[in-house]
Write a structure and sequence with these properties.
This protein is an alpha/beta fold and about 300 residues long. The protein contains 7 helices and 18 strands.
Length: about 300
């Protein structure tokens, strides 16, 4: 057998997975499942390790895993970082599986000064705050084109003017302008029920500890965009303009697709840093794993409580 084929066979045997190769458009699994999506490999591995009855499905190079987690039928998938990756992964899951809800687990930057690293935030709604017009400067002022002014609903940050997004969905004859995409009200109620029951980690395995014990906070606005934010001025602008409590690079894209498809959605985001608001350098490198573990722990408790 040629060496490349031997290497491929060894990899498949080492992973110990069953990977059906479906025809285009074919449904891979008829069982109604909750999608549990993560952006980073740390959360993905933590959730995957707790999943029973695992079956793997490879779609266009991306691994989708069906099984049972916290007593629920789930579909686990690693979206990867970025709005585009998150949107593509969500749509593919909905197209090829029987999806009844989408749950996102991830880390994020904190925007609300009352929140601390390690806290797990569950926002009521999500906006794509970097969907914007970069305006030209005229006589010392930034002026967006007249055609865009109707979509500009929020104050600008320099040349950047946030704008609403055109959205299509079943029941609409034409696209609607929308900035906020809601989390599902019933799923939020489940999150509120379990918020006080989850014990979150305060210290890393290396003994680096947070000043305060992390908590679960349900409510407020989350925003997502294509850029990693580590800037105090922009963090303040985000808080003042959108009343945001947290920002990331995926959740609003997932919320957008779920809203358009009529699928219930909720996101759990654990703060790994303060998006430029800390006194020293960014602390993401120190508390990334702790934040990811906290988010995954809340998600498992949430799944067990779901109807």
């Amino acid at each position: 057998m040629p060496r490349p084929l031997l290497l491929m066979l060894a990899l498949v045997l080492a992973l110990g997975v069953n990977r059906p190769v479906p025809a285009a458009g074919q449904s891979l699994d008829d069982t109604p499942r909750t999608v549990v999506m993560s952006a980073s490999s740390h959360e993905w591995k933590t959730l995957l390790a707790a999943t029973a009855g695992r079956t793997d499905h490879l779609l266009d190079g991306k691994l989708f895993v069906t099984g049972r987690l916290a007593g629920r039928d789930v579909l686990l998938v690693l979206s990867g970082v970025s709005m585009v990756n998150a949107a593509m992964t969500t749509q593919k899951a909905i197209d090829r599986f029987n999806v009844k809800a989408v749950v996102f687990s991830g880390i994020a930057g904190g925007v609300d000064p009352s929140l601390d690293i390690g806290d797990v935030i569950v926002p009521d709604q999500w906006g794509q705050y970097l969907e914007s017009v970069f305006a030209r400067e005229v006589d010392g002022r930034f002026v967006p084109l007249r055609a865009n002014r109707a979509k500009n609903r929020y104050p600008n940050f320099g040349m950047m003017f946030p704008r609403a997004t055109e959205v299509t969905r079943t029941g609409l004859d034409s696209p609607e302008l929308r900035f906020w995409f809601p989390a599902d009200a019933r799923l939020l109620e489940v999150a509120r029920r379990i918020a006080g029951r989850v014990v979150l980690d305060r210290c890393t395995p290396e003994g680096r500890c947070l000043t305060l014990t992390p908590k679960v906070v349900v409510g407020g606005n989350g925003v997502s965009g294509q850029s990693f934010v580590d800037n105090a001025a922009f963090r303040t602008y985000t808080r003042d303009t959108f009343r945001a409590v947290v920002l990331d690079m995926e959740s609003a894209a997932v919320a957008h697709v779920a809203f358009s498809q009529g699928v219930p959605f909720i996101a759990f985001r654990s703060l790994s840093d303060l998006a430029g608001g800390g006194a020293g350098e960014n602390q993401m490198g120190t508390f990334f794993a702790l934040a990811a573990e906290n988010s995954a722990r809340v998600v498992r408790t949430f799944l067990a409580e779901m109807p």
